[in-house]
Predict the structure of asparaginase.
Amino acid sequence: MENKVLIINTGGTIGMVGKPLRPAYNWAEITKGYSVLEKFPTDYYQFEKLIDSSDVTTDFWIKLTEVIEENYDKYLGFVILHGTDTMAYTGSMLSFLLKNLAKPVVLTGAQAPMVNPRSDGLQNLINSIYIAGHELFDIPLIPEVTICFRDSLMRANRSKKTDSNNYYGFSSPNYQPLAEIATEIKVIKDRILKLPTEKFYVEKNIDANVLLLELFPGLNPSYISSFIESNKNIKALILKTYGSGNTPTSEEFINTLKTIVEKEIPILDITQCISGSVRMPLYESTDKLSKLGIINGSDITSEAGLTKMMYLLGKKLNLKEIKEAFSTSICGEQTV
């Protein structure tokens, strides 16, 4: 193994150069004007087609896991350059697919391209290299998929993009940062997952036949049932509910959910709120949901809830097994 970090460029604002902005052709273009980056012990891998993160697909996620798998034994850690819009989705999915991960996988990006003198990209990238290179910079090992942004290192499957303009673009509402970044990088060891003892491997089966629906006042329950009926491939429904997991209590709405449950389609209840959790059964609404067998999403983010469901469906688990999986934490994604 080389004492190096592999930087994987998938696209995004951080690697844009030129006027008008375009994806960089190579690492030399990205580092031009930043001689400090040339001094770091890194290698560089670039996706053949760099993408806007809005174009992320399940195939993209599989490709990313394959790059890490092929290079896993060669490097101390990995830095993934990624667009910010879907970074939390990618980080969450990687946390489920990269099994027994014993090395840092750090996702980072920027709100402004590095050709902008005021870009946040340089700081984010250097901090990420430090964390991925850990022992080279006297930093404790963090064997997790993380997001490094501004002055925080967050568990990826606990993170959300919460601001489209501010340099503090990401937050971790329900779990404290794994490291605080200032003049020094302070790692909080008791927040980090334990180092696995089993051999690293990658799972590559994802089933994206999931419907995620945010409730709103006036929603006609028949729209939900009609969509499910007309799309036979839908295998799971995720409801972004009010507050502590509340939904309308009308007979029509509850019967709609009951019909879906009777089809053995799992329904996951996650809150629309940025922080906090679903609490079943706290109110009349959540009591009814609990009795129907709706899955309590606890404090899982919508990004992690969605990708966890895709991951579990990819393993071809039945309804009971999916419910059991959401009552446990696979890789620190929720409080149980």
The two ends are 37 Å apart (CA to CA). Residues 210-325 form a domain with the Rossmann fold fold (CATH 3.40.50.40). The chain has two domains: 5-202, 210-325.
